[in-house]
Design brief:
The structure holds two protein chains of two kinds.
Chain A: H1 2-19, H2 38-49, H3 67-81, H4 86-97, H5 112-134, H6 147-160
Chain B: H1 2-30, H2 33-62, H3 69-74, H4 81-86, H5 92-112, H6 119-143, H7 167-196, H8 201-232, H9 243-268, H10 272-295, H11 308-332, H12 347-379, H13 387-410, H14 418-442, H15 449-472, H16 479-487, H17 491-511, E1 517-523, E2 528-531, E3 534-545, E4 549-560, E5 563-568, E6 571-575, E7 582-584, E8 586-590, E9 593-602, E10 608-615, H18 619-636, H19 649-656
Antiparallel strand pairs in B: 1-10, 2-3, 3-4, 4-5, 4-6, 6-7, 8-9, 9-10
Helix pairs in contact in B: 1-2, 1-6, 2-5, 2-6, 5-6, 5-7, 6-7, 6-11, 7-8, 7-9, 7-10, 7-11, 8-9, 8-18, 9-10, 9-12, 10-11, 12-13, 13-15, 14-15, 15-16, 15-17, 17-18
Classes of the chains: A mainly alpha, B alpha+beta.
Chain lengths: 173, 657
């Protein structure tokens, strides 16, 4: 039962990971640019959502109303209609405009740090924590109280008896 | 003359801030309590004079005094009064003045709060606050003075950027700045503790309310900004991973981590060194955010006032405070007594995991935002780091954390029974998974992320409710008794549940974007277009005049079957003094969803291109943020964190002794 619960949790997390890919919602283009074939139209939208409008500020050509974005969208749709595949179209776009046009930076030596940083940081942090928690707990190896300390403690406890501290809420145990 | 008085008040505020640094610092060195006490008076004084300066600038805006360059550049005499006032902070100079106004307000509040802060710590905190204020007063007076007069007085102002003339954006900067600047208190307390050399659970108790206050306002500010971008920019998106948005998200993530780590510190006297570091980092990220937005180093849809020459000054401030803070930390951290260790399965271990993930997320946003700048500066290569990168890196960090959150809250402090906690939540978990499964089945073939995200959101909401239920419910007690037990829970427990539920609500709203529909069409009079379960009909195209603009709108009737629900009027507005028309979205809220219409170009034959969206549950995105902030405010009412709580007998005794 315990293992099942753990497994279902793992499954949920895995499901989430699997589903991450298709989040970005599709946005707008002008009506006259659309391709007649719905599958091709979908491809065009997905591609243009990943390409940066070069004259805009942080907008994809799919979002942008700038004339250059429109030109690129039309170019892209002509290529799709002509039967070119996504990778070839992207490659040509990068050849012409550089990596700057890709909203998702490519994975290469120059972006290595960018892409690996989140996972390296998480792993490094986790490793530090693991090491810390594996260290023998200080709590288990404390020396017993001396007779003097016991006496002080009894004294303090006796003093504290009348007004119990009320600031902290009780916790479930 | 009022403007000159304002200018003078600003200079006096700078002088008082210098005193707020110098006098108590001298007091700290010479252990002179009277000198340390001057921190209070100077802090309150600096605030009062900043307020006077701010009032003078506001007066100039209300009077449309175009002899003041700042007013002439950013206002117009025909503008409605509310936008004349919000015009004060809708430009670079004025927004920086608002920034220091809030900074000095926080310092004054700390000076006047009835927290029993030991005098040396209080003095150190106010010294740091004064130093930050001094830097920013100098920045304003030297590079961004809003009180400068023009030699040739124009007859009319240039007008406010129309995109900023909006109720949402009028209150967005104040909310956001209260958040940003509020974290300065945690920073000052951290520096104060490093100077003072003492840090314990009481320190966390002082810092927590200020962090909570800042965090709640920042949450509201970000939500407001997101909603503004949603209806104002006309693409119907709510988050663009734009550098300026990232600038507000970084301190929010770090601040969220800080809220959680101070709990551990307060309850368990642990995570102390980390909490100090996090306090420094959170405000550092606020400063970086201010730098990114105000220096103009980024090209971004939101940067309206950018001037690279100012960038160097803010960069200097940034290097001084972040570098100084971190150096002090490196130098003094080892002298702080480390807290106790703890068991791997416990509430505090869960909170440590929360901090690990949130800190990684904040770092990811920071790296993603700065990477293109650094790469271009070092190699000359230009790359874009856009939404696809952030979605690919942030979601794998965030979603597992969200899945584990209710479980963490169900664990007890010190040593917890994971299995028992799972059992307690098994019904809620099972129900959430069941709902997710049903939705997956019903919407099969569609987006996967939507049902999964909504399922996790539901699990967060129900998990928070279950947490309260398990704390309160006793089968033998009646409903009334259980209800009074619920009301009797500590406010912080209710606030925590509310904030986590709010996160779940937002997540459901975000996931539901996957179920939206979109139509792009060229429409003429009488055209009928479907929008999800509804349809809209173009009635007519109208051109009309507003108070300070001329607009052309399409009037659409919205129908559900045969019932007319109302009218939406998307259009384009041309403001007086501007040349570019601005798109106005037409919105209708139906239940928790919205119909969103945005117009493109008007054609000569009387047709117009239309983008029409149906966005189910979209309201939940911002409603969730509101609930989160409400949770924060409710926690603030907890007796443990009340800033102005009457002194307890014991505290009063302690002071007398």
């Amino acid at each position: 039962m315990k293992r099942q619960r753990a497994r279902s949790l793992t499954l949920a997390v895995l499901l989430v990971m699997l589903a991450l890919a298709g989040l970005s919602p599709l946005r707008a283009v002008e009506p006259d640019e659309r391709l007649a074939d719905p599958a091709q139209a979908m491809r065009a939208r997905a591609l243009s959502a990943g390409l940066r409008c070069l004259v805009c500020q942080n907008q994809s050509i799919d979002d942008s109303t700038a004339p250059l974005a429109r030109d690129l969208r039309i170019l892209l749709r002509e290529r799709i209609a002509a039967g070119d595949d996504d990778a070839a179209i992207k490659r040509d776009m990068v050849a012409r405009y550089g990596d700057f046009i890709l909203l998702q930076p490519p994975f290469n030596p120059r972006t290595l740090v960018l892409w690996t940083a989140p996972f390296v940081l998480l792993a490094a942090g986790g490793w530090v924590l693991l090491r810390r928690s594996r260290r023998p707990s200080a709590l288990e190896h404390t020396a017993p109280l001396t007779e003097q300390e016991r006496e002080n403690l009894r004294h303090l406890l006796a003093q504290d008896q009348p007004d119990t501290p009320s600031g902290h809420p009780p916790h479930r145990s | 003359m009022t403007v000159e008085w304002g200018h003078f008040a600003l200079i006096l505020a700078l002088v008082l801030s210098l005193c707020q640094v110098g006098l108590p610092l001298w007091g700290l060195v010479s252990r002179d309590a009277a000198l340390m006490q001057t921190a209070r008076g100077t802090a309150v004084g600096a605030f009062v004079f900043t307020l006077l300066a701010f009032a003078a600038l506001t007066y100039a805006y209300v009077q449309s005094d175009f002899s003041v360059i700042n007013v002439a550049m950013n206002s117009h005499s025909t503008k409605p009064l509310a936008y004349k006032i919000s015009g004060v902070w809708s430009n670079h100079e004025g927004s920086m003045l608002l920034w220091v106004l809030i900074l000095t307000l926080f310092a004054a509040l700390v000076a006047m709060a009835r927290q029993a802060i030991p005098l040396p710590l209080l003095a150190a905190v106010l010294v740091v606050q004064g130093a930050v204020a001094t830097a920013f007063f100098s920045f304003i007076l030297i590079t961004s003075n809003p009180f400068l007069r023009a030699m040739d007085v124009p007859a009319e102002g240039r007008g406010l950027n129309p995109i900023l003339q909006d109720p949402g954006l009028a209150i967005h900067p104040p909310l956001l700045y209260i958040g940003y600047v509020g974290f300065s208190i945690a920073f000052s307390f951290a520096i104060g503790a490093l100077i003072h050399g003492r840090i314990d659970a009481v320190w966390a108790r002082f810092v927590r309310p200020w962090t909570l206050l800042a965090w709640s306002f920042l949450t509201l500010g970000i939500a407001m900004g997101s909603y503004w971008a949603y209806y104002e920019l006309g693409w119907g998106g709510f988050w663009f991973w734009d550098p300026v948005e990232n600038a507000s998200l970084m301190p929010w993530l770090a601040g969220t981590a800080l809220l959680h780590s101070t709990v551990v510190m307060e309850k368990r006297d642990a995570l102390k060194v980390w909490t100090i570091l996090l306090s420094i980092l959170t405000f550092s990220l606020s400063l970086i955010g201010t730098f990114l937005v105000r220096s103009g180093v980024l090209t971004s849809v939101h940067t309206f006032a950018s001037d690279p020459s100012r960038g160097k000054f803010i960069l200097g401030i940034l290097v001084f405070f972040i570098g100084g803070g971190l150096s002090l930390f490196a130098w003094r951290a080892h002298s702080l007594r480390q807290g106790g260790l703890f068991a791997p399965i416990s509430r505090e271990a869960g909170l440590v995991l929360n901090n690990l993930v949130l800190a990684t997320m904040a770092a990811t946003v920071l790296i993603g935002t700065l990477y293109p700048l650094v790469l271009e500066a070092t190699t000359g290569d230009k790359i874009s780091v856009g939404a696809p990168f952030f979605e690919a890196t942030m979601l794998p960090l965030f979603l597992p954390l969200a899945v584990l959150q209710p479980l963490g809250t169900a664990l007890s402090w010190k040593r917890a029974d994971l299995w028992a906690a799972m059992q307690r939540l098994s019904w809620v978990f099972g129900f959430s998974v069941l709902v997710m499964g049903i939705v997956l089945y019903v919407t099969r073939g569609g987006s996967m992320i939507a049902p999964v995200g909504a399922g996790i959101g539901l699990w967060l909401v129900l998990g928070s409710m279950a947490d309260l239920w398990l704390r309160v419910w006793r089968a033998k007690a009646g409903w009334a008794a259980n209800l009074s037990r619920l009301i009797g829970l500590p406010r912080s427990a209710l606030g925590t549940a509310l904030a986590h539920a709010g996160l779940g609500i937002s997540l459901i709203g975000i996931a539901a974007t996957g179920w939206g529909t979109e139509v792009i069409a060229t429409v003429g009079k009488g055209a009928e277009i479907p929008a999800g379960p509804y349809r809209v009909v173009l009635e007519q195209v109208i051109t009309r005049n507003g108070p300070d603009y001329r607009e052309t709108i399409g009037r659409f009737q919205v129908y559900s079957d045969q019932n007319r629900l109302g009218v939406i009027e998307p259009g384009k507005r041309l403001f007086i003094g501007q040349t570019m028309p601005k798109t106005e979205a037409g919105l209708m809220t139906i239940g928790l969803g919205q119909i969103y219409a945005s117009l493109g170009e008007f054609q000569t034959d009387g047709t117009v291109s239309l983008r029409l969206y149906w966005k189910p549950l979209v309201i939940l995105i911002w409603a969730g943020a509101l609930v989160m902030a409400l949770g924060g405010f409710l926690s603030l009412l907890d007796r443990r964190s009340r800033i102005a709580a009457p002194k307890t007998a014991r505290q009063a005794q302690g002071e007398a002794a």
